[in-house]
Amino acid sequence: MNKSDSERIATVLENMKYKLASDINEADLIVVNMCSVRQSAVDRVFGLIPKFQKLKTKNEKLKTILTGCILKEDKRKFEKSFDQVLKFKDLLEYQPKYQNKLTAFIPISNGCNNACSYCVVPYVRGPLVCRDHREILEEVKNVVQKGFSPIRNAISNGAREIWLLGQNVNDYTSPADSSVNFAKLLELVNDIPGNFQIRFTSPNPKNFSDELIEVMAKSKKVAKYINLPVQSGDNEILKRMNRPYTIEQYKNLVKKIREKIPDINLTTDVIVGFPGETKKQFENTVKLFKEIKFNLAYIAKYSPRPGTAAFQIKDNVSLKEKRRREKILREII
Q1: Do 115 and 212 belong together in one domain?
Q2: Where is the MTTase N-terminal domain (predicted)?
């Protein structure tokens, strides 16, 4: 999602007559588009500050802007080091300046109505807002017909990727027509003429519908790929995470997907070391990994995020233990 936002921010800046610098040392304006999902991402931004300060000693005209997903607690700290901390409004109204000639990132919604206890997205992006399906289809058609700007006709040179983005794509409903849910949108994008492949992220297991599985199975342009975040293999931990499904339901969903799409490439997201996660509970995640046999897993060590419900719980799993658990899961994959 941040990549897509950055491509639209680039358009905003070009409209303001800014030009892309060939090197950061030549820039008069540096814009950092930040993510707050994990503390490590926030720390990387803090790590940039000394470099920017050094650049300012060489270029008195240099200004720095911080934007993106920023928690209130962090905003106060960053305001001391950046010239401006701001939010670019109505980014979806701007045509993106695609940075990748192979891939177009197209948001279908912004924000989230879920309340996973570890996640800051609802606090930094706000509640779910869905785009008009007609806007989305027009953007896809534009990319397919004209190619990825600035490289024209790139899409005609071979199969390219369209990524449909949302914090939870399953929750999509077009504000222009309530009958257009995510499954229907996927069908409509699939029907657009052209040589391209469709991927999407992220779905939530809680409402991954049979209709969506059917559409994926019959649509020739939809990639045989799903990232289906499980987050934990233990029901009690899932409950504390406020993830409204059980492992039994998750496994049943995977079974249905594999029955309809036998060659599916299945990946997942998982968090190790959630507050209170015992070794026995972690072993349930190990058991799930061995049973499901994911093609790939994005494994995150739990990171306390201010303002979330989980932040109120003591982070009582040591970093050493989190690393150990991460290593075990990576070895299974």
Answers
A1: yes
A2: 1-104
Amino acid 318 reads S
First to last CA, the chain: 26
Cα–Cα distance, 155 to 262 (Å, whole number): 28
Instruction: Give the structural domain span for 148.
Output: 98-223
Q: How many CB atoms neighbour CB 297 within 10 A?
A: 21
Three-class secondary structure of residue 33 per DSSP: strand
What is the rounded CA–CA span in Å between residue 158 and residue 330? 33
Q: Which two tokens stand for residue 214?
A: 């059917």
Q: Of 85, 117, 147, which marks where a domain is finished? A: 85
Q: pTM, whole model, 2 decimals? A: 0.85
Query: Is 91 within a domain?
Result: no
246 and 195, same structural domain?
no
Q: Which of 56, 85, 114 is the last residue of a domain?
A: 85
Helices (H) and strands (E) in the chain, counts: 11, 11
Indicate the pLDDT class of residue 5, thresholds 50, 70 and 90. Answer: confident
Q: From CA 323, how far away is CA 282, in angstroms rounded?
A: 13
Q: Mind listing the pLDDT tens digit for each residue in 178-234?
A: 999 999 999 999 999 998 999 999 899 999 999 999 999 999 999 999 999 999 999
- Rounded to the nearest integer, the mean pLDDT of the chain is 90
